[in-house]
Amino acid sequence: MNHLTTREILEFVDGTILDGQRTHVIAHLEVCSRCRSEVEFHRTLVGAARRQPPHAPTRKFTDRVMQRILPKGQRRWIQTIMNNAGGVIAMGIVLAVLGYALLSSNSSASTQPSMITEMVKVCDDLYAKVQEFLKVQATKLESLSPKPRAIGSIKLILLTLLSLVALGAVDRWLIQPRIRARK
pTM above the 0.85 mark? Predict the structure, then answer.
């Protein structure tokens, strides 16, 4: 007599066996006490395993596994770069935008306004609205008077702040989730 394979027994216990094979296994179990006892053993084992609460690995376990996968020196180096990548990229973009804005404002050779020029115009408009709002608030409070600044430095400060906000958003919602997904 051919006994059931371990795979057939496990599929029968889990309920994942196909219907055609199911009838064959049931017919075999009616005549074979050895396979019947094997099925009962696996049902008991699976039932005991399912009654156990789920167990999550500890942080130390994860660290030990990662130390075995990557040597310590390499792990620190990679981790440092990955943790600071968002900030480094953000600062690079801010510096690139500021450099481009400063260099392109001096040369007006092109007849069409560039995207940066349009952004600066939008920033100027926003700045004018904010400045007007602050003037109204200052006159209401009668305690502060706006200090005049050079228009170029105000544009630069506003552009820097807007760039930092945009880069912070990109870092938080695009770069950091991908870094966390790799961990």
Answer: no
